[in-house]
Amino acid sequence: MGLIDRLDTKEINSVYLFANTPKYLYRHLRHIQSVQELSQRATLQNLVDEYTKITSPIARSSEDIAAAYALLIAVTFWEYQEALAALGKFDLSRLEWGNDMKDIFRTNAPINTMVGIGAQASIRPCNLEATGSSTSTASYEYTRNNRKEGKT
Amino acid sequence: MRAITIPNKPHYTDITLHTRIRHAIPNSQSHAFHSYEKRQFLALEGRFDKAVFRDPPNPIYNCHGLTFASRRTAITDNDALQTVLNDDGYHEVAVADVLPGDIILYYHEDGDVEHSGVVISKPESPLKIPCVLSKWGRFKEVVHYANDCPYDFRNVKYYRVTEWD
Question: N or C: which end of chain A has fewer CB atoms below 10 A?
Answer without folding.
Answer: N
